[in-house]
Amino acid sequence: MSLIKVKIGDLGKIITGNTPPKKDPNNYDGTYPFIKPTDMVVDKRYVSEWDESYSEKAYKQYHRSYIPPGATGVVTIGTVGEKLFQAHRHCFTNQSVNAIIPNNKYYDDYVFYLMKLNLPKVESANPGTASGRHHVSKSNFCSIKVDVVECIDSQKRIADILSAYDDLI
Questions:
Q1: CA-CA distance, 97 to 117, in Å (whole number)?
Q2: Residues of the chain scoring pLDDT < 70
Q3: Predicted structure pTM score
Q4: CA 17/CA 118 separation, integer angstroms
Q5: Phi and psi of 18, rounded to 5°?
């Protein structure tokens, strides 16, 4: 089983979420889940409850940032290095989250565990700001190098074993 070093941006498509303007209530209270870091729980893979949802109007405006099941969302503003989740249904995220939609070289579940293992690297990519708020830009996030197993069959086996342990816990 060989490891190669790749940039997070090479794992697939990276999407940064959005927050529709709050001053227009017609952007909210729809059927499209809107997941924010406050909805995520440390060490919990899936988000099963969220406070807000996009409306049809917001969906039409932001449809390009609609993430599919299997994508991994990593917090890059605020609680950097602490929270991530894997989408188990289509959803939106806010701008504090970068979502990785794996390309065909990488198994979805493997990418989740890979990012969980590499959360300290994400935290280390924070250049520090005058405000003291942790922030890793999309370009810094995409350029973080991680070691990956090249063979997708091996990725699947690793992820399946880790998933089985998670299910037990």
A1: 17
A2: 128-133, 169
A3: 0.94
A4: 21
A5: -140, 160
